[in-house]
Design goal:
With about 450 residues, the protein is of the alpha/beta class. It has 14 helices and nine strands.
């Protein structure tokens, strides 16, 4: 028993030594040894080889489906507006045939709506040797099966223990470092040390995910006294962004381990954490955020206006609250490469522990981040219009589908206002046709 314990301690000491020398130490100085880049290149070659083997092992019809993948969308929607679609179905004023338009829209929503499919994992063009992305996998060849088995051993027996160790080091360092820095008096030294702790720990956590992140247009990085808004795919979005710069976080105060991290970090950095009762007070939240933005020496606030995680294919409605605060808005577009791992957190299906386990047993996390030029609210522009303008810019840059729906539909029903809006549009159209018809009758 003693020999087994000694051997275990020896293995752990080797793991920690490797992690410190090859990952933690370079993270402190912000340098990379190129190990992640080499790993990604080998992984790309392996996945390309696997794709070719799959193509050879399936029949011609399936091969065409791989080469020219068809979207998983069942309904091919016509984007024509109501005003153009209904007059095309009939002539004159109201007719019973108008019902067919609404029936068609209803059937489309029942078979496949635009909202719920945004809360499921993104479809892949080809298999990435992860069983979770191909539940219908069948035997193709012996060599492909051997490679898959080797991949399982590498991910679970080598990468997972290393990633857990790195994550532990990163979280403990964040808590201890922030607590120590928080004891210092306010000043430039404290701010510098706080930034160093946050950047170092974020870099360690990114390496714990085998993360490879490409930052574009760094000249547009958010500045102090501003507000950074980004599309939201995963809780690790925060780590992805803080790996390249420091931000003040905004969110609800939690308990457990997350609460310990929040209480430690707020001592060193001016994060804005709200209690559950305070989150319901919109005016209080807005007031505290405005006070933060007014101080040009404080870090930019990081906000995800969608309010929930979307599956890396779309950008849904931005809540207007973030755009009523004032100040400069720094839009950021985040797009993950699903070939190496699914970063989307389906919180209604997986708990945070299950999600992190799936992330840490993936091949890697590869992500592109675009910093867009800062924008200001124009004179006379409403908060909703401003939010939509920023959302459109993020969607275009990230190659994401722009949707008007509220991400809150993930757990709630459609608001009556959406139904009333369609009813009003139809009523205006009918009234307009009626007025024109009456006018022509009087002229005759």
């Amino acid at each position: 028993m003693e020999e087994l314990l000694a051997a275990l301690l020896k293995v752990l000491s080797v793991w920690f030594s490797l992690a410190f020398l090859l990952i933690v130490l370079p993270s402190i100085f912000g340098v990379s040894l190129g190990i992640s880049g080499l790993y990604i290149k080998v992984l790309v070659k392996t996945l390309e080889w696997a794709t070719l083997r799959i193509e050879k092992g399936i029949n011609r019809q399936q091969k065409e489906a791989v080469k020219n993948p068809v979207s998983n969308v069942i309904i091919q929607r016509d984007q024509t507006t109501m005003e153009k679609a209904i007059p095309g179905l009939r002539c004159g004023d109201f007719e019973l045939s108008d019902v067919f338009y609404f029936c068609k829209k209803g059937f489309e929503a029942i078979v496949e709506d635009e909202v719920t499919q945004r809360f499921t994992s993104e479809e892949l063009v080809s298999w990435n040797l992860l069983t979770r992305t191909n539940v219908n996998f069948h035997y193709i060849s012996l060599r492909l099966t051997v490679v898959w088995v080797i991949g399982v051993l590498v991910r679970y027996c080598f990468l997972l223990p290393l990633r857990v160790i790195l994550a532990t080091i990163g979280i403990v360092s964040m808590i201890v470092g922030s607590t120590l820095v928080g004891q210092l008096p306010n000043g430039e030294t404290k701010d510098w040390l706080s930034d160093l702790v946050h950047l170092t720990c974020s870099r360690i956590l990114v390496r714990a995910l085998s993360g490879t992140i490409y930052y574009h247009n760094k000249e547009n990085r958010p500045q102090k006294g501003g507000i950074c808004v980004a599309n939201h795919t995963s809780p690790i979005d925060v780590i992805i962004l803080t790996n390249d710069g420091c931000y003040a976080m905004v969110g609800q105060a939690h308990g457990g381990l997350m609460g310990v991290i929040q209480r430690a970090t707020v001592k060193a950095c001016p994060h804005v954490w709200f209690e559950r009762s305070e989150m319901k007070d919109r005016h209080l939240v807005t007031k505290r955020l405005r006070e933060h933005v007014a101080d040009k020496n404080k870090l930019p606030i990081l906000i995800f206006p969608e309010g929930t995680c979307i599956n890396n294919t779309s950008v849904m409605m931005f809540k207007k609250g973030s755009f009523e605060i004032g100040g400069t808005i720094h839009p950021v577009a985040i797009k993950y490469d699903p070939q190496f791992g699914d970063a989307f957190w389906n919180s209604s299906k997986y708990g945070i522990v299950s999600y992190l386990l799936r992330i840490m047993t993936s091949w890697a996390i590869v992500c592109h981040v675009w910093y867009l030029p800062p924008v200001m609210r124009e004179e006379g522009e409403g908060a909703v219009h401003f939010a939509n303008r920023v959302k459109s810019a993020i969607a275009r840059q990230g190659g994401l589908t722009e949707l008007p729906w509220d991400g809150g539909l993930k757990r709630a029903k459609v608001k009556d206002t959406f139904k009333e809006e369609e009813q009003k549009n139809y009523s205006k159209m009918i009234i307009g046709n009626g007025e024109s018809s009456n006018a022509s009758t009087e002229l005759n």
